Amino acid sequence: MALTNRYKTAVGAGTLTALVLVLVFGSPWYADWARDNTNGRTAGGWFLQLLAWPGWRFDSGDSVQDVFAADLKAILVVALTALFLYLLPGSQLARARGTLSQFFAGWAAYIFAGAFAALLTALVQSNPSLLGAFQAAGVGAGYGLFVGWIIGIATLGARRGRG
Length: 163
What we know:
- Keywords: Membrane, Transmembrane, Transmembrane helix.
- The chain crosses the membrane at residues 67-88, 100-124, 136-158.
- The chain is mostly helical.
- The chain has one domain (10-155).
- Helices cover 68% and strands 0% of the residues.
- It has seven helices and no strands.
- The protein has helices at residues 10-25, 28-37, 43-50, 64-87, 90-93, 100-122, 130-155.
- The protein is globular, with a radius of gyration of 16 Å.
- The mean pLDDT is 87.
């Protein structure tokens, strides 16, 4: 995907990939499928369930505040990915496209995006606490660590510049 279009930027490629990840794997339908059809005690099942982490939803038995926080988290993961891809200099300063600095900058951007999205939305949920926000940031960073390599691959070969 990222290796075919020579005119795209690292920011654009990474943001588009993050949007697809959140829209597809964060959907209620995928989350239900992953929960019902995978075994979280296996590496593959755990990873498939992890992909559903920045889940969004339309309705739920939860409070409106919690549903809003979950939807905001999904939006923030994409928006913060774009911001961190723009701010991280690795892909911008690389002398040649396709270097490892682009890969690691994309991966790091997703780790930071997951952590900060979780931290911010944990403070919006019902009954927020600082400890809960820190724990949520750890979960978000873990999601970024194990899924962010996909963003890293998407940014490989993208041209330097703004997207």
